[in-house]
Model the fold of this input.
Amino acid sequence: MKHDIGLIGLAVMGQNLVLNMANNGFSVAVYNRTTSVTDEFVNDLPDRPEDVVHSGTADRIDGYHTVEEFVQNLKTPRRVMIMVKAGGPVDAVIEQLKPLLDKGDIIIDGGNSEYADTNRRTEDLRESGFRFIGTGVSGGEEGALKGPSIMPGGDKEGWPFVKDIFQKISAKVGPNNDIPCCEWVGEAGAGHYVKMVHNGIEYGDMQLICEAYYILKHTLGLSNEELYQVFKEWNEGKLESYLIEITRDIFTVKDPETGNYLVDDILDTAKQKGTGKWMSQHALDLGVPTTLITEAVYARCLSGQKDARVRASKVLEGPEVKFDGDKKQFIDDVREALYASKLVSYAQGYVQLDAAAKEFGWKLNNGDIALLWRGGCIIRSRFLQDIKAAFDKNPDLENLLLDDFFKKAIDEAQPSWRRVVASAVNNGLPVPGFGAALTYYDGYRQDRLPANLLQAQRDYFGAHTYERVDKERGETFHTDWIRERNLT
Done:
């Protein structure tokens, strides 16, 4: 039997995608560089629990010890999905495959590759006669098995050959759970770019939730039991989302060894795999202010300086944390601040998507992208449907904050948002996410910012020129500031 698709790379994500494909009726060939991993995966299939392996799944999966044998056992045009570490390992696997494949075969990279690599690989493989699809996959291990969000891009000629598989294994949403969270995103690296933005928004969401927790814990002194109740209530309203849900659950877990709540015994240093950093770096290249996500990246960097922070805490002083207001009102304020800040995070993400689409000539459908994130992925949440509705109503929407629904939401949340940020500042509690979101909002709504003085400074010391409010845009001027100055 020749297989519908082949997958290379049997780490947990790869294994679960294979099981997902086979559970949905597709036959899958698998290969891993370490042959013992292949053998162990295939041999253990019959012993997997029923909620992981459906009837007949084991019969649809075969493992191979050489790439040559693996390729020979695929239907044509061959579809090969690569699930290995991003960067050089992906290029190495592609070079292994090229001599063994025929023109028109499809190579799929389902890892967390950088969009620039996908741009390059799409063009290089097209010139060699192959179809390359760079595919963002979100949802973690559980999503890979039960239905992830899938964001394919690359050579569009390859899309019809993988569409059926990808849409069947993806998460489903809609009234009848029949709308797949998978649709063609765009040319070249568009799929991996959208996945990068997803991950950047994920960074922002997680940071904002952590700040909400930190404020409630240190300002009000809430216990983990009380925090559980707060997040439980939040998850039943407009903040309903996967990340709020798992945060709720975290507050219930105790360490069997110590009996303490586990969250309190976890070291406060956060790691990252790079996608949030890539988004911030490209935001700077594009000249777009993706400030909240960048602050979320920096917050992880600061958390990593644990030893330095411990030393500083013994030297540097700040205000004593005090609260004498209405406890319930403050919890409601934090909820509203979190909601408003999340809206800003998504708004910034879409502004960057639009800028990237213009830069690379991609035709992105922002409403469809919101739908891709409605299920299966880490940032899935209730208000993504509202984002889709906003772009369906106005596909050329310049910024989500200008949509009537989101403008009203921000207007309603604004008093609470400002009270929470002010309280945090007065109590010496760091809120880089909340603060960046509010500062962006206040900057975006101003028709005049102090950059006029900045331009005067640049022209003074470097003759960089400036534009004038009373002249046509694009016309530049220079002043001899030293000669014109009037010192008294």
In short: The CA atoms of residues 124 and 186 lie 17 Å apart.
